[in-house]
Design brief:
It contains 24 helices and five strands. It is mainly alpha-helical. Strand 3 and strand 4 form a beta hairpin.
């Protein structure tokens, strides 16, 4: 078929008409109001409206319309157009007007940027548009990334000034640590000195899926047998070395253990359903003994089973059980796992292999690393002292407001006495920070997120404004920790000695 480029026009949302013959609607409604009510009630248009407010309106897939009787009728994109119509005029959907107004109140800042006109492709006729619409809704127009590909994507985001916590803040609904582990383990396995060269081809190719192999390494005793431990961010320890270099230094027994696992996975004798990866089973005890080189013990366990199973269950860390509640078989998000141990404690061989709780699980903020007592004023120090003591679980809103105050006053103190003093509210003081440090690589991510992050980004200026002025924003402990994680690099920089501050 010859390619014919359809014209693209910008049309006011109010001038777009819903298709009353829309395939989503079982029986043709009498008018657009009835169509709107049906789509909001049955096709979760309210959910689409929330996403538009939260993430912005994206026109990478523009609606398709046809001109009929002098009006533009939407053939493709009725949900998006319905969401915009409802947000721009809640009264147009009486059955959901209250919910729409609540959304607009909750996302008041974002609502100011709602488009009143959008781009649409105009088809010459319904018949011309039908094949494209059918392809969108009856086939899979985009191939979903595999978990390995998702892992590579999130891993690629790491770099100077961008840590795992930054990626978590950008993707709050993603188990980022799980993907970092996958990416690091792929690189770790590629660095092993296999006696059988074909195994390296297997672990670096599509044959081995990390979403399957994670069933092995998420078990603490199996991970120990192959020489692997992770820090809280999913990086293989020691984090000062690349995963490939760590693998190159494995003992002969650890290398043999990895080779055994790879052979078993390649032969499909091990997979995600294997009982060998379930803690309290004889098969698991046999596998661990095999990996540790205790083959005689493994054969004895396989024959007798129960006695050694009980011993293994007592010794093993119960928090390494697979998360049966997760549909994807992912790790539980680091609750109670040995990942909370610090690098020094793990590598020095502490008695129980555990370290202090991760800072994000604590009821107070950890200000370790922030030198707020040496070069600052007494009043600024008091704010930091109060911030350190406030209980986030009991007073998360108070903590958020105090954190904003700490950020704003630290900025003002830092630039005090310089040729560019910071005055005004937070949004104004951030402009001074951008002018002075906007090109400092280690601070670029934090500064950009603080300035331009939306209300869904804890620690951004818009989030602080909403926390201060809107009763609809739910502030919780996790958000306050995330906000502090975003601000901490900048605060640490601003608290340095005045001599190394901005030139006056």
């Amino acid at each position: 078929m010859t390619y014919v480029q359809l014209p693209m026009l910008e049309v006011d949302v109010g001038d777009l008409l819903l298709d009353l013959a829309n395939y989503r609607i079982p029986t043709r409604p009498d008018d657009e109001a009835a169509a709107l009510n049906y789509l909001f009630a049955e096709e979760d248009v309210l959910g689409a409206a929330k996403l538009i407010l939260r993430d912005g309106y994206f026109d990478n897939e523009v609606p398709i319309a046809v001109e009929e009787d002098g009006a533009y009728v939407v053939l493709e994109g009725n949900r998006r157009v319905s969401a915009l119509k409802g947000l721009l005029d809640p009264n147009s959907v009486p059955s959901h007007a209250h919910d729409l107004r609540m959304l607009l109140k909750r996302y008041a800042v974002e609502a100011e940027d709602l488009p009143k006109a959008i781009r649409v492709l105009v088809a010459p006729s319904r018949e011309a548009a039908n094949p494209h619409i059918a392809r969108l809704h009856t086939t899979v127009p985009k191939k979903r990334w595999s978990r390995d590909q998702q892992a590579n994507y999130y891993y690629s985001l790491l770099g100077p000034g961008v840590a795992v916590d930054n990626i978590k803040a950008d993707y709050p609904d993603v188990d980022v640590v799980r993907f970092i582990k996958m990416a690091e383990m792929r690189r770790f396995l590629s660095g092993v000195a296999y006696r059988d060269p074909s195994l390296r081809n297997y672990v670096t190719g599509p044959g081995l899926a990390m979403s399957a192999f994670e069933y092995a390494y998420r078990s603490a005793d199996i991970a120990e047998a192959i020489g692997v431990s992770f820090n809280i961010d999913g990086h293989v320890r020691p984090t000062t070395k690349r995963p490939e270099a760590i693998a190159a230094d494995l003992t002969d027994q650890q290398r043999a253990a990895i080779e055994y696992l790879m052979i078993e996975f390649r032969a499909k004798r091990l997979n995600t359903r294997s009982t060998e990866f379930k803690k309290a089973t004889p098969e698991h005890a046999v596998l661990v003994a095999e990996l540790a080189g205790n083959r005689d013990d493994a054969r004895q366990d396989e024959a007798s089973g129960s006695a050694d199973q009980e011993t293994t269950s007592e010794v093993a860390n119960p928090d390494d059980r697979p998360n049966s509640g997760s549909p994807s078989g992912a790790d539980a998000p680091d609750q109670g796992s040995t990942d909370t141990a610090s690098d020094d404690e793990r590598e020095s061989g502490s008695a129980d292999g555990r370290g202090p709780n991760h800072p994000d699980t604590k009821a107070t903020l950890s200000l370790t690393g922030l030198d707020y007592t040496t070069h600052t004023s007494a009043n600024l120090q008091r704010r930091y002292h109060e911030l350190r003591k406030v209980n986030l679980k009991e007073n998360p809103v108070a903590a958020a407001l105090l954190l904003r105050s700490v950020l704003e006053t630290t900025i003002k103190f830092h630039f005090e006495g310089t040729s560019t003093p910071a005055v005004g509210q937070l949004s104004e003081t951030i402009k001074v920070v951008i002018s002075a440090y906007g090109k400092t690589k280690s601070l670029q991510h934090s500064i950009n997120r603080i300035q331009s992050g939306g209300t869904g980004v804890p620690g951004s200026a818009q989030w602080f404004n909403l926390a201060s002025h809107s009763a609809d924003l739910l502030v919780d402990t996790k958000q306050v920790h995330a906000a502090f994680g975003l601000l901490e690099p900048l605060l640490r920089h601003l608290l340095r000695p005045p001599a190394s501050g901005p030139a006056s």
